[in-house]
Amino acid sequence: MNTNKVNYYPQDTEQLRRNLTNVLLSLMVLMLALILSNHAIAKDDTGFPGRKLYPQVTTLSKEQLYDKIVKEEVVIVDVRSAYEFQTLKILNATNIPVSKKSFTDKLKALREKTDKDIVFYCNGRTCFKSYNAVMKAIKYNVKNCFSYDAGVFEWALKYPNEAALLDQTPVEEEAIISKDELNAHLLSPKEFEQRSLEKNSIIYDVRDRIQRHGSGGIFMFRDKFVGLDNVRKLHKIIFKAEQNNSTLFFYDAKGKQVRWLQYTLKAQGLTKYYFMKGGAAAYYKMIREEQAGS
């Protein structure tokens, strides 16, 4: 009779131990890599609040976009207003405002003309227009569309030879209007209201007709209307103000468009001008708060 017992366990327990150790080490390395990867993504997203809100959108860095431009692999689309585009832009970009109803049709027509990547851009990290453009592209099945979300200002500062300011290239760093320079011409709604009553003052409403809702200005017929895209009229207004030593007061819908107007005013040498901080929206809010407190 065979009295040998059958051994159902591996003969080489030391080899088994080594194998398990190697497996555990591999898992630890994988977990560490995932942690570091997630950390890198989070770090990369710092300062880009739109990336978390639009996770479906693939973004490009300045360097990636520049590389594509050099290799002629990309079509660049500026999705801001025509006036913003005419003021400061990436060189050779095409302007298709995402706010216009014609955006989708024009985008589809562009895709039919080229199979290159299409990259949208707008003002900067807190401007979501380029994300919205990609989302519309996804909705209407326009492939290979991306967002360069660092914006036109960062681009102009890093690649001045690949940007144009008032049709001038390269863009000089000192030509970019700083926040301090803008703030020097900003007035609160109350200050704007009071100072615009001073002698030789003229108020201009630069909102578009949709933003005005078909109504007049907000200062009882004292304000005049001029569209920001009417460059010829703006130049006449500036010239006349200089001749008459007038002070110009401008307001827009939310205080965001006047920053572009400042480039034209500065280029024409005007110094006596002010903008309403927060635009018409801030003025209406002030009125409501005053009425509620009375």
State the helical fraction.
Answer: 40-55%
The SS-based structural class is alpha/beta
Number of helices: 13
Going by CATH, the architecture of the largest domain would be: 3-Layer(aba) Sandwich
Number of domains: 2
SSE series: HHHEHEEHEHEHEHEHEHEHEHEH
The termini sit apart by: 110 Å
Strand residue percentage: 5-15%
CATH superfamily of the largest domain: Rhodanese-like domain
Shape estimate: elongated
Kindly describe this structure.
By secondary structure, the chain is of the alpha/beta class. The chain has two domains: 52-171, 3-Layer(aba) Sandwich (Oxidized Rhodanese, domain 1); 179-293, Rhodanese-like domain (Oxidized Rhodanese, domain 1, 3-Layer(aba) Sandwich), CATH 3.40.250.10. The chain has 13 helices and eleven strands. The protein has helices spanning 13-44, 50-53, 62-70, 82-87, 103-113, 129-139, 151-158, 179-183, 189-195, 209-212, 231-244, 258-267, 279-293; strands at residues 74-78, 88-90, 94-95, 117-121, 145-148, 163-165, 186-187, 201-205, 223-225, 247-251, 273-276. A five-stranded parallel β-sheet has the order 7-11-10-8-9. A four-stranded parallel β-sheet has the order 3-1-4-5, with helices on both faces. Strand 4, helix 6 and strand 5 form a beta-alpha-beta unit.
